[in-house]
UniProtKB/TrEMBL annotation, chains A, B:
Keyword terms: GTP-binding, Isomerase, Nucleotide-binding, Nucleotidyltransferase, Transferase
Name of the protein described by the UniProt record: mannose-1-phosphate guanylyltransferase
GO biological process, one term: GDP-mannose biosynthetic process
UniProt cross-references to InterPro entries, sorted A to Z: GMPP_N (IPR049577), Man1P_GuaTrfase/Man6P_Isoase (IPR006375), Man6P_isomerase-2_C (IPR001538), ManC/GMP-like_b-helix (IPR054566), Mannose-6P_isomerase_type2 (IPR051161), NTP_transferase_dom (IPR005835), Nucleotide-diphossugar_trans (IPR029044), RmlC-like_jellyroll (IPR014710)
Keyword Isomerase (UniProt): yes
Length: 462, 462
């Protein structure tokens, strides 16, 4: 499940590229990549990635980077976890009737992949017996950030119990009581037999399973993607799998797992799971700290200096800066909501915009002009397009461009420039084996993204 | 005196453009501009600006912006305040033998220009009687950031006294005692008769006055600037006017002035003098604050968000970010010293580099390429130059360029591009009445600033 849009890790995580796709982990991997890698190989079938259609290209690119093949199923809209689980179960049971499923969130950190896989084996075996197993995590502290699960008395296996009840995020005192009584954190990851889950969904949330079956039946293959039928999917209630099934079913079990786990729900929790220096700081990127303790400082390029502070989070990107009390970093969500209401582009969009063919980034803008850096992947092609209000100058600074202008095709090499007059039909293609990098200078009365007439597009965009 | 290089207001103030030239004041004026404007008009002669030669163009441009004519005297190196005061006195006494001087720092904030001018009248009259008057400020709090002056018992005029003694920056308890006993802050601004100052310098610091006379005698007029003779100036001791004269002379007096004053010695002191909102915050530029109090947030373009903090300073520029405890913001000086030792360019240089002809700013850089935005003032001309390792593409995005390439002159208008092959001799001139803006794409094996052969330069640079 990789469809979420985490705003609590703003400004790094934004709607157009949310946290599960960000290289937050040491080694530069995203949690999405780490998640699919953890369940690749022996014992696991080809993963089914369920994500929002907006993330299809980044999803495909990140899978290719880690060499994992997957079915990428696109949700036409956000519907919470029950519809995603239902769609997964429908697809799995079509592969084989007795399919066992792991429903995993793509934005979690897991410290020990081997321990995780061993636990998957355990809950898989219990799932085969008809249990719907939730992955519980033994608390390392009385956190108020997570929901808890009370394991029942009936033992299903080693560290596995029938599930007694779910409880919401508690206050500190309640959380201490829970920890003392052996409650575990609810990680939101599950194992079940596809058939059992579909049975329980049919019983407790029939509209969800109906919509899932119809949207899979009506799905369209589009390039490498499986597009769920929008009308059928729209009919599904928006509900979490906990509310739809887990709190109602008598088949629920829980494994009390002991590996390091975090849902990285805030910058504070990222600080908690990262290696810290002797002052308790996590410092990433170009940063300088002086007389500073227990803080997270992360820069994506700007020199970021912190002086004389404790328990702060400082995160800087090319177009936005967040400074927050580490223990109140959850409130970033409220701030982002406010900034969205104020229609600030930095609240939702990254400066670097990923496209199926690569990415672009604005590097300068002024009255009647805009400058972009455009990187085109080897073999990729931008749409055949036209602008009404701007001319463009393309200077190739790396690689080779095949440029079509009003039907005439010409190759441009490093240090060569093409001029595209207003209104001309043009297309850029990278015929080479290395990235093509272009500096695009736009000049005209209007340089907005929406002045684009797409005449033809290999990625079927309008 | 406008030659200082304030690092405690980093990242806005840097060696290449220090705080006195930054638009820190409401209304977008620099303290340098406010200082010269305050002493312009009736009762004041043409100001003598003494500054470092590195600041000559920004100095001239800022004077032109506020419409003040001044003699701009260039120090070949930094020598503290006594040599500057001596040079000023030498120049003033050459204008007229009985000249009265005000020696003012260019980086101070003064709240009430009228009160200031009235006090200048008062200390001017006392200076004419032979006193060397220091401008003392009645403390508004027991600050530990300023040196203090004890007024003597002998009254020289209304609020004016013979000076009893100077004391260094005290600790808090001592400062409270000073305030109770009627001490005033030492503002470092003075009034004196040129002749008296030269006499006292001759008596207490003869090497300073000798060097001043020789460096003025050997000065060279260069465009609008007066360049002090480097060898003569180099011979001067590096000493403050307080140590050289004020603590020794029997002619010192002090006026206890009552207007709002600050030397803006740190971000904390800027917070103290700016209008604050009801939460005690000063918020400037594109910023969003949530649950934040008594803080200074200043952005030069990046969206800057602060959540759940108190007493912090957050200052963001295009290439650097400072986050500091407001009460420890003086330590920024130490941080900058460390970053200079680490040879981080952001410690000393701004991203936007001012030149006599306008400014340029890097907007993108990568292997074998660099992109710059270049703005050329109307009528201005860049040097005739050549590069060994890079070709350049110039796209005009605003105004008109007169471009010379290997002797051929051609006009380029908005949306036209010129190509400069490696090794060609080229020059850019703005023949128009509005700013010329060019996007320059450099491509080549080396794009450093030092790959430039200047063949001819109207600003006499090498």
């Amino acid at each position: 499940m990789a469809g979420g849009a985490g705003t609590r890790l703003w400004p790094v995580s934004r709607d157009t590229l949310p946290k599960q796709f960000i290289a937050l982990l040491d080694g530069g991997e995203s949690t999405f990549q780490a998640t699919v890698r953890r369940v690749s190989g022996e014992g696991f079938d080809r993963p089914v990635v369920i994500t929002n259609q907006d993330f299809r290209f980044i999803c495909a690119e990140q899978l290719a980077q880690v060499g994992v093949d997957a079915d990428i199923v696109l949700e036409p809209e956000r519907k919470d976890s029950a519809p995603a689980v239902a769609v997964g179960a429908v697809i799995a049971s079509a592969r084989r009737e007795d399919a066992l499923c792991l429903a995993l969130a793509a934005d979690h950190l897991i410290g020990d992949a081997e321990a995780f896989r061993a636990d998957c084996q355990t809950i898989g075996e219990l799932a085969a017996k008809g249990h719907i197993m939730t992955l519980g995590i033994r608390p390392t502290e009385p956190s108020t950030e997570y929901g808890y699960i009370r394991p029942g008395a009936e033992r299903l296996g080693e560290n596995a119990f029938r599930l007694d009840r779910f409880v919401e995020k508690p206050d500190r005192a309640t959380a201490e009581g829970y920890v003392a009584e052996g409650y575990v954190w609810n990680s939101g990851n599950f194992a079940f037999a596809a058939r059992v889950m579909l049975d329980e969904l049919t019983r407790f949330a029939p509209a969800v399973v109906e919509a899932a079956r119809a949207s899979v039946a009506g799905a369209v293959r589009d390039l490498d993607f499986i597009r769920l039928d929008p009308a059928s999917f729209a009919a599904s209630p928006k509900i979490s799998i906990d509310y739809a099934v887990m709190e109602k079913t008598s088949r629920a079990g829980v494994l009390a797992a002991a590996f390091e786990w975090s849902d990285i729900g805030s910058w504070g929790s990222l600080h908690a799971v990262k290696p810290r220096d002797e002052a308790g700081n996590v410092v990433e990127g170009d940063a300088a700290v002086l007389d500073t303790r227990n803080s997270l400082v992360r820069s994506e390029g700007l020199l970021t200096a912190v002086v004389g502070l404790e328990d702060v989070v400082v995160v800087t990107t090319q177009d936005a800066v967040l400074v927050a009390d580490r223990t109140k970093a959850g409130a970033v969500k409220d701030l982002v909501a406010r900034m969205k209401a104020e229609k600030r582009p930095q609240a939702s969009e990254h400066l670097r915009i990923f496209r199926p063919w690569g990415w672009y980034q604005r590097i300068d803008i002024g009255p009647r002009f805009q400058v972009k850096h455009i990187t085109v992947r080897p073999g990729a092609t931008l749409s055949l397009q036209r602008h009404h209000h701007r001319a463009e100058h393309w200077v190739v600074v790396h690689g080779t461009a095949e440029v079509t202008i009003d039907g005439t095709v010409k190759l441009y090499h490093e240090n060569e420039a093409a001029y595209l007059p207003i209104g001309c039909t043009h297309r850029m293609h990278n015929p080479g084996k290395i990235d093509l990098k272009i500096i695009e200078v736009q000049v005209g009365s209007y340089t907005g993204e929406d002045d684009i007439v797409r005449i033809e597009d290999v990625y079927a965009r309008q």
